[in-house]
Amino acid sequence: xxxxxxxxxxxxxxxxxxxxxxxxxxxxxxxxxxxxxxxxxxxxxxxxxxxxxxxxxxxxxxxxxxxxxxxxxxxxxxxxxxxxxxxxxxxxxxxxxxxxxxxxxxxxxxxxxxxxxxxxxxxxxxxxxxxxxxxxxxxxx
Length: 141
What we know:
By secondary structure, the chain is α+β, with helices and mostly antiparallel strands. It has 2 helices and 7 strands, in the order H-E-E-E-E-E-E-E-H. The protein has a single domain (6-116), classed as Umud Fragment, subunit A (Ribbon), CATH 2.10.109.10. The protein has helices at residues 6-19, 117-139; strands at residues 22-25, 40-44, 54-58, 64-73, 76-80, 96-105, 108-111. Strands 1, 2, 3, 4, 5, 6 and 7 form a 7-stranded antiparallel beta sheet that branches.
C-alpha cells in the first residue's frame, strides 16, 4: 500500500478546516504549560503564521504536530514546542495544516494566545542557552 505524503495530508486538513473548524486531541508533552496531553485544540483556516502563534503542521512521517511558530529560515517555517529548548526541523509551507485558536481542557474552552514579538522568542533562546551551559558544566564535574 502506498503511503500518503505529509504535503497531501496537510492539504486535506487545510481543505477540511476551510469548511469547518476541526477539534484535534493533543498527545505528548512538547507543549506542556500551554497544551497538556489529552487536551483538544481547535484548528481553523488561516493564511500564514505570525510569530508566537500556535499552528499545526504535518511532519516528515505525516504525523500532525502542534507547536509555536518562531520564525522563517531559508523560506521554510521554524516551530518549537513550548516545553522544548530546540526547534523542530524546518517545515515547508505545503505542510501547514491550520492555526490553533482554542484549547479545550477539563471541559472548559480557552482562547489560545499568541506570545508577541521577537523579544519573547529571543528570551527563549537565551534561556535555552543558559540551560545547555548549566548541563555541560554539571556533566564536566
